[in-house]
Amino acid sequence: MEAPGRRSMGNKKTFVLYPSLGVGHLIPMVELAKHLLRHGLAVLVAVVDPPDTDAVSAAAVSRLAAANPAISFRLLPAPASPDAAAHPAKRSHDTLRLANPALRDLLRSLPAAADALLLDMFCVDALDVAAELGVPAYFFFASAAGDLACFLNLPYLYPTLPSFKDMGKTLVRCPGMPPIRALDMVITMQDKESEQTKIRLYQFARIPEGRGVLVNSFDWLEPRALKALKDGVCVPGRPTPRVFCIGPLVNDGKSGETHECLAWLDAQPERSVVFLCFGSKGAFSAAQLQEIARGLESSGHRFLWAVRSPPEEHDKFPEPDLERLLPAGFLERTRGRGMVVKNWVPQAEVVRHEAAGAFVTHCGWNSVLEAIMAGLPMICWPLYAEQGMNKVFMVEEMKIAVELQGYEELVKAEEVEAKVRLVMETEEGKILRERLAMAREKALEATKEGGSSEVAFAEFLTDLEKKS
């Protein structure tokens, strides 16, 4: 499948982008594709399309293609994992490995050889196809440089430790990052003997085989992690791939879609609204929804809250029953200062709206970067994947957020109220807003001509020329 209006690649350098399974991996690749196009390069995004629920649906790709007509998309048919009962990490890994023949056929079918293959961090087996065809392969790491430093080190560190699940609050120390409690390490790697942990360690161990790593971050934000990566201390005994910080690459907040919440925000005072949004997987238990609601009501502040059905109810009630899930009378009592929407809001537009004053976030890296580009203070509520680690970076290292206590089990209403008041009312909140204003300024500087991220991208292209 190709996007409408595909331009001829002509004599331009051609980059093939290869995301892992799932929309969450595809969207950052689309932002990278836009960046390449802005630099006059030709782009093709190859999307693995297995016949199971792990796939990015053809409909989602069609929507992205229609919104980005200058980007070519190609669906690659691939078998599903032969082990349907396996952990999702194992199924995804199997499917990506089984997609190698389709990727090989695509690369061979191009009118001219691809100048580079840009891989998602989980697409490590595509390195074999790149080597076979002589195509330079780089990775695009869509999360924090601190995560990269940790992941590159884990294949060497983890064999010397017990399972993270048995270490509790014991601190784990990796080069380039602050000490992190074992319980905040990646959820899929809590049990070192599990199949999914072994898959992740295999994937992380292969990343240094790439010719370099493009990271969606910027120099000012993560100096400690970038120094460790540059000094080669994350990968003992072998060369560390060169790292190019080319971010932040994020949605510009101009989707063209209309949503009722945007009109509501237009009527709110500047920097007055607390925005709560937890991504496509951010569903809480009914008990947690009640606590959040009570905390918001007690805080007295304006709020915009995207609510999903609890995980145990989602199949039966894909659209949440707000009257049943939230405290009795909550919607009526807060009608003048709060808005609760079902399932989805245009996050990139909301965080950039002048009425937004704070962002309660699951700490996904794309959300973090969107908030930085808006100068919006954050309250951390990590939910899954690498987000416990991101929380530590954001609070301790970058100092761009505050942490909600109790997120491992149940965050109480009093804690929600306290952190909302801290950010919106106190001197500490004022300092946090000033820090975010500076972070935004530094991010904009990095992406301007002559800025650190633009220089890094030029160095990537020079590196590619040398190695080609």
UniProtKB/TrEMBL annotation:
Gene3D superfamilies listed in its UniProt record: Glycogen Phosphorylase B
Family matches, as InterPro entries: UDP-glycosyltransf_plant (IPR050481), UDP_glucos_trans (IPR002213), UDP_glycos_trans_CS (IPR035595)
Gene Ontology terms for molecular function: UDP-glucosyltransferase activity
EC numbers, comma separated: 2.4.1.-
Keywords: Glycosyltransferase, Transferase
Pfam families per the UniProt record, alphabetical: UDPGT
Family from the record: Belongs to the UDP-glycosyltransferase family.
Protein name: Glycosyltransferase
